[in-house]
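ok so I'm stuck.
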Amino acid sequence: MSITIYHNPNCSKSRKTLEIIESSGIEPNIVEYIKTAPDRDTLLRMAELIGVPLSDLLRRGEADFKDAGSQVPLDNQEALADWLHEHPRVLERPVVIDNDAKRGIIGRPPENVLPLLRR
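replied:
not stuck anymore, here's the structure
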């Protein structure tokens, strides 16, 4: 099983989700997305695998989102992906992708990851 977690080690939900994955015997690919922001294609693919529009992966309470106000291109998925690449703190966390099954989830709550780990 090939799992990627877009992880923020400063987030308790992200740490707990990573713990659940690792305790299931899976060694995931860990992407600290604040340090290594996903590119446009990766962000669009994340949303597709989770089954939501990219705008559903935004943390609207984050300062970067609030400060940007109407400059956030919510009506254009490609432009939004470019914006999110430049403002990775706004990405919901953690995002977990099963690369083999081509499925994804948001690990909030962390237990959301469990069905992804059962195949």
